[in-house]
Amino acid sequence: MAEAAGIKASMAGASSAGGVGSGGPRTEAQPPPAGPPEPTTGPVAESTEVMTVNIGPHHPATHGVLRLVVDLEGEVVRDLKPVIGYVHTGIEKSCEDKSYWKVIPFVERMDYVSYFFQMEAFCGAVERLIELEIPPRAKYLRTIFLELNRIHSHLVWLGTTALDLGAISMLWYCFRERERILDLFEMAAGQRMHTRYFQVGGVIEDIPRGFEQKLRSFVEDMPVRVGQYQALLDRNEVFLSRTKGTGIVSRERLLELGVTGPLLRAAGEPWDLRKAFDYLAYPEMDFKIPVGTVGDNYDRYRVRVAEMVESTRIIEQALDALPEGPFIAEDRKYVLPPRSELSTSMESLIHHFKLVTEGYRVGPGELYYAIESPRGELGCFVLADGSAKPSRVHFRDPSFVNLQAFRDMSVGSYIADMICSLGMLDPILGGVDR
Questions:
Q1: pLDDT tens per residue across span 398-410
Q2: Is residue 38 part of a domain?
Q3: Is 313 within the bounds of a domain?
Q4: pLDDT tens-digit profile of 307-336?
Q5: Is the pLDDT of residue 13 over 50?
Q6: Count of CB atoms within 10 A of residue 41's CB?
């Protein structure tokens, strides 16, 4: 158990590559430790008590406002039902009453740990609806900030999940690096979280002087820090016994449930939308897709840790190839005029006022745009009716879809293993309820 709710409200071969880690690759399935006893049968079964308990929605180990209705036989989980809906954000419905310009701050607050991905999903969908091409520099800047946000999300996951298992030092170490990322966000966008940095047409502002140097220092240090995390955890007998051989779900079962992201890759399926589809600057990036072999909690840990290193590689390549030019499209029908014009041009001032207050119209149509978020496939569906407000905005949130696998991860295991599996699932309840 842990105090993680307030904070986060064996690598194997790969197809197109593998991962890193001081613990070395897992080349074959590890025999799981002695599992929980089978359900009692026969005459004794009549006296066996199966107790139904509520874990959450205010339990510190549920990583948010999640209620679990669990059937326990002793310490063994015999059935489990996640109950959601306690966050009550109603973000998708609220988007129908806002102009496209004003939707962006709403969608940022669904998955509140990986907010840049929410912005990219919505802005990318609208840009494709209106057939607006963003400048090459904007593509690279978005790629850089998405990968920074991926590292940020995995750091929050690693710190809080390790805390659930008793490794409190990991929380401080992970949040030390997280603070450096938030400093970079603040330097470029003015805000540490929910930055609204992405706009339809590009980004709101170019990176400031000194940002590149500070970012290069971070991506140089981060792989070393990851190695330190692994040195702490890969030799810790408690952590290894809690993660190896627990929460196993087969690749085929995960595909049946529609699970994506690190959970699916940990089971051996090298599916990553950054490789599968052409968006932003990812086609020009050289990076590997870490995958596992067993599909247990240890593989999930190793995959995410290796992804942090791969993200630093992507950021470094994007910085090296960052093109010169505008950071936002020049189509004034959808893009705000530069601030420098507002004090000298009445037309620009009026145009700025009308775009912010009334917004722009999007012709009738519908589109689904999907990207690879830290938790899997994040997709945004936008239905436009020709007005300045979307008729429908719907997100395919990976936390919501992946939560289906939690029962398969937990039934038949000990309740302590269920807590470990929930941490490795990495759900964000704001995205689940949205």
A1: 999 999 999 999 9
A2: no
A3: yes
A4: 999 999 999 999 999 999 999 998 888 988
A5: no
A6: 8
- Asked, for residue 66, whether it belongs to a domain, the answer is no
Q: Model confidence at 35, in pLDDT bands (50, 70, 90)?
A: low
How many Cα atoms are found within 13 Å in the side-chain-facing hemisphere of 137? 12
Q: Are 298 and 244 spatial neighbours (Cβ–Cβ below 8 Å)?
A: yes
Q: How far is Cα 98 from Cα 94, in angstroms, rounded to an integer?
A: 7
- Res 48 pLDDT > 80: no
Residue 29 sits at the vertex; the CA angle it makes with 23 and 35, to the nearest 5 degrees, is 105
Query: Coil, strand, or helix at residue 164?
Result: helix
pLDDT at 28 over 60: no
371, pLDDT greater than 80: yes
Confidence grade of residue 244 (pLDDT, cut at 50, 70, 90): very high
C-alpha count within 13 angstroms, C-beta hemisphere, residue 188: 27
Structure tokens, 327: 């950071």
* Residue 330, beta-bridge partner list: none
Token code pair at residue 371: 């990207």
Structural domain includes residue 10: no
Q: Mark 172-201 as b/e (b = at least 16 C-beta within 10 Å).
A: ebbeebbebbbebbebbbeeeebbebbbbb
| CATH at residue 116 | 1.10.645.10
Domains held by the chain: number: 1
Can you give the pLDDT at residue 340? 81
Spatial CA neighbour of 116 closest among 128, 127, 104: 104
Cis peptide before 427 (omega within 30 of 0): no
Query: Cα 207 to chain center, whole Å?
Result: 23
Q: Which domain holds residue 317?
A: 91-331+358-433
Per-residue H/E/C for 235-250 = CCHHHHHHHCCCCCCC
